[in-house]
Amino acid sequence: MKKQYIYSAFILTAVLTAGCAKEFENTTNENDGAAIELSSVSTDPMTKAVITGTSFTTDEAAAGIGLFLLDGSGNAYGANTPNVKYIFSGSKWTAASPLRIGNTEGTLVGYYPYSETSTNVKAIPVASSINGTDFLYGCITGLTSAKAKTESLTLSHALARLKITFKLDNSFVGSGTLSSLTIEGDGIAASGTLDATSGAVTATKSAFTVSGLNASISTGLTEDCLVVPAAASDTPQAVTLKFTVDGKAYKVDLTDGLAVKLQSGIQTDINLTVKNTSVSIDGTSIGTW
Q1: Cis omega (within 30 of 0) on the bond before 125?
Q2: CB-CB contact of 139 with 155 (8 Å)
Q3: Taking the CA atoms of the chain, what radius of gyration do you get in angstroms?
Q4: Is 184 in contact with 243 (CB distance < 8 Å)?
């Protein structure tokens, strides 16, 4: 994904990437306060995103981020509309009708990419995909009118990432066309919802399947799978991969030392060699992304 421009990576200490829990006094209607603008929006520099590095490309910025402004009770701050779309404009992120804040502290909660149907900040729809959407979330606590135009928002990953690399064994006979891929396991879900205030994902176990790929692995192929975690877990979990190459079905069980870590912001790399009659696991590795 080619970078078109780079936003500031400056991150104020008020930015929290792991959640937004904090108590404030309740606020009254302060919708006539200062308009909120963001000096920058970036991804957590400790976990690189599908979004290139810590910046957004022109197209990604055009997709926009959704912002909610909450009071100390977790309700809409003043008369602000929930789920306001912010886009990059020149040197800042702003909206046609921006959120407004007074002297009473509020919490700014953001998610990416923007969806006009996401009106519940604690239930943003998310979905598993191959080379698809990198769902992000983040918040700023202690925001007031004095800080309305100086804050920087840092976004973290809501999904787990599996990078599956396929290659053909030297003895393989055929075109080596990958036509389908299914990922199964107790920690796998095809879809779910994200609580953008905390990063918690709610999902029910379900296999994630992609068909009609028609992708050649003759010279090697890496499928970037962004997966909704079905259960919060910081320990590796068993995963089963089922895929079809040249019409033949293959199955790989990743267990024990080859298990996958299905946790938000965690990437597992899986390397497979496909033969005509079997598939070998060349290894797996787990880290941040």
Answers
A1: no
A2: no
A3: 21
A4: no
Q: Is the pLDDT of residue 139 over 60?
A: yes
Tell me how far apart the alpha carbons of residues 133 and 36 are, in angstroms, rounded to a whole number: 26
The model's pLDDT over 46-97, given as tens digits with 9 standing for 90+, comes to: 444 434 334 666 677 778 999 999 999 999 999 999 999 998 877 788 899 9
Angle at CA 134, nearest 5°, toward 21 and 94? 65
Q: Please give the backbone phi and psi of residue 258, each rounded to the nearest 5 degrees, phi first.
A: -105, 15
The token pair at 102 is 């007074």
pLDDT at 22 over 70: no
Q: Whole-structure pTM over 0.70, yes or no?
A: yes
∠ CA 148-19-17, nearest 5°, is: 70
- Cβ burial, residue 204 (10 Å; 0-12/13-18/19+): exposed
Q: What is the pLDDT of residues 235-259, one digit of tens each?
A: 888 999 999 999 999 999 998 777 7
What is the pLDDT confidence band of residue 44, given thresholds at 50, 70 and 90?
low
Per-residue exposure over 261-273, b if at least 16 CB sit within 10 Å of its own CB, e if not: bbbbbbbbbbbbb
Could you give the CA distance from residue 256 to residue 73 in angstroms, rounded to a whole number?
Answer: 44
The candidate with the shortest Cα–Cα distance to 226, out of 174, 183, 168, 193, is 183
Nearest residue to 152 via CA among 31, 43, 51, 264? 43
Give the whole-angstrom CA distance, residue 134 versus residue 225. Answer: 10
Residues 161 and 122 sit within 8 Å (Cβ to Cβ): no
Measuring CA to CA, which residue among 225, 193, 196 is closest to residue 208?
225
Phi, psi of 145 (to 5 degrees): -60, -30
Scanning the structure block, which residue is given the tokens 């790399």? Answer: 269
DSSP codes of every residue in 85-100:
EEEEETTEEE-SS--E
pLDDT at 162 over 80: yes
